[in-house]
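INFO batch 0412 | record 1 of 1 | parsing
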Amino acid sequence: MNICVTASGEGLDSEVDPRFGRCSYFVIYNPETRHVESISNAAAFTSGGTGIKAAEIIANAEVDVLLTGTVGPNAFSIFSELGIDVQVGIKGTVQEAIRQYKAGELQSIRSPNTTPGSGMKKGNGMGRGMKGGGMGRGIDRGK
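INFO prediction complete | emitting tokens
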């Protein structure tokens, strides 16, 4: 069995990263052999298809359980198809996340828990404009 934890660095002492597609590393741990492998997430800096590319990395690493924070619909569909159990609620270090998993403190999800582009939300504000306060303030129109 291989457990994968999304992380900000390499190894068991690294802090977890709750972002699946944009995490820096995937730390893979085999509880039977205690083997640890850290894989750099080459998909983290792509402009599109990040979740799918990251999911392919996980699939190729023969992961059985993914511990993370959020997973979008494209990646989740791959995990669902491959039978990879996705559990959320990780905190602390990779080692602590594995302990949380073993203790049954995390939750399996049955559907994606984020939507594409949810990191960037469209606002409905007017903005602050450029220097001068925007909206034409400070301009003398000769009136």
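INFO post-check: DSSP finds three helices and six strands in the chain.
INFO record closed
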